[in-house]
Write a structure and sequence with these properties.
Blueprint: E1 2-3, E2 6-7, H1 10-41, H2 46-64, H3 74-98, H4 102-119, H5 131-148, H6 151-154
Antiparallel strand pairs: 1-2
Helix pairs in contact: 1-2, 1-3, 1-4, 2-3, 3-4, 3-5
Length: 163
């Protein structure tokens, strides 16, 4: 069945389900569980808790992608891990800023599903053709953190389940 630029076939349906499942599970795990738990154990100001929770959940999110070493070359996996860290940070920023897990889930789904169509690969690591793309991801995550988590905004954020 041809639906314009998208055509129905088993690979497209499989990747749709794979993207949806990983977005839900990974965001729930890293932003819904890890992020608030880290913030519970951190002592200090709300800003310190928030930054530490964002950083730890982003780094752990990136590191979990080392599991893909069994399916793709090391360099591709390493680039994927290095690219997933700022992506995880960005998802944590979105979660903190919106106070809902649905926004990071949706963003994550769109990102994974888009990577399939741009690379024709089930692994997002194939998206990175150069280290410049990884550095651009870090710059985007940093810019988003600066914009969304400036001091005037942080004071208004209700720390999820903790304040």
């Amino acid at each position: 069945m041809n639906l314009g630029i998208l055509k129905y076939d088993a690979n497209n349906v499989s990747f749709f389900m794979f993207s949806l499942g990983s977005a839900i599970l990974e965001e729930y795990g890293f932003r819904g569980i890890v992020f608030p738990k880290v913030m519970q154990v951190v002592k200090g100001s709300s800003f310190r808790k928030l930054m530490f929770g964002i950083t730890i959940s982003g780094v752990l999110f990136g590191l979990i992608h080392f599991q893909n070493i069994f399916y793709q070359p090391f360099l591709v996996t390493f680039q994927q891990v290095m690219g997933a860290i700022p992506f995880g940070i960005l998802m944590a920023v979105l979660y903190a800023r919106t106070s809902t897990i649905l926004i990071p889930m949706l963003f994550h789904f769109v990102s994974d599903f888009n990577s399939y169509f741009t690379t024709n690969s089930f692994f997002a690591g194939a998206f990175y053709n150069s280290w410049w793309q990884v550095l651009i991801n870090y710059a985007i995550a940093l810019l988003a953190a600066i914009i969304f988590l400036r001091p005037a905004v942080v004071n208004k954020i209700k720390l999820i389940n903790h304040d």
